[in-house]
Amino acid sequence: MSTLVRRRGGGREPQRLFEITDHLVATLRRGGADLSQLGVPAPAAGTDTGVWEDVSDAQASARALAWTNSMRRGLHDDYLRWHFCDLDDYQQPQALSGWLDSLVAAKQTKARPATRHFIVSGNIGSGKTTAIAALGNEAAERGLLVRFVQHSAYLAWRRPNGAPDGLSQHQVHKFYVEEPDLLILDELCGEMDSVQNDFVRSQTTDLVGSRIASGKATAFSTNLRRDGIKAVLGERLVSRIENRAYLAKVIGPDRRAPVQPLDW
């Protein structure tokens, strides 16, 4: 079988078609491709990749892109600018930072985090989503694979033909349940007050149970109290969420309220 080649100008040596050149590698690397799938070796031992040893530059870029894309898919890309240093003290930046340190340490040692769940509860408009978005931004920068989704959106996307971007039900489960080192699940039971049906409970039970079984970490935000969540999910699932969990209460002013009340 003959070998196809492409002639370069100036009488230089021919280049094989589909040859992986340095320029192509650089382009793929910037795009976040997994170069190991193309036979490109991982960085040499001792090379500073910015994350831990088993993650190459390309993989780190792909992980950062996964976080950004999940925020955009959830229409929350305006939260990508927040970091712990931007939070107010009542938004629990120190507790969030300490938990993230424990997740990174567990990942580095291939261990399961001692505290699997971080629950951010508080009143409407107090900055809960900003706090957990900052957690996601910081975690992605430190090399964790992180994704964001609102609880109600995840449930809608698990229905036939309900997911955006042409995602299948299997892909939604893979992206948000199976893959992430850290899942940010915003507005737990939001807009589901007293909703009790088999679909909500079965899908949420699968999400929480699958992540617990795999030793993956999940951060929740909610403006409901425990009884409100129990009314939707049931006592058993609430107990599983509470197990090995840290609760941070965000109690602050409603940032969404107008400066002056409207005269209705």
Description:
Helix 7 links the parallel strand 5 and strand 6. The N terminus is likely disordered. Helix 3 packs parallel to helix 4, helix 6 crosses helix 7 and helix 8 crosses helix 9. The radius of gyration is 22 Å and the shape is globular. Helices cover 40% and strands 12% of the residues. With 264 residues, the chain is of the alpha/beta class. The strands form two sheets. It has a five-stranded parallel beta sheet with strand order 4-5-6-3-7, sandwiched between helices. The longest helix has 17 residues.
Would you summarize the structure shown here?
Helix 3 runs parallel beside helix 4 (128-141), helix 6 (169-178) crosses helix 7 (198-213) and helix 8 (226-233) packs across helix 9 (235-242).
Main sheet summary: 5 strands, parallel
Give Rg in angstroms: 22 Å
Taking strands numbered 1, 2, ... along the chain, how are they ordered across the largest sheet?
4-5-6-3-7
Overall helicity: 25-40%
Series of secondary-structure elements, N-terminal to C-terminal: EEHHHEHEHHEHEHHE
Low-pLDDT runs? 1-18, 42-54
Mean pLDDT: 82
Strand content: 5-15%
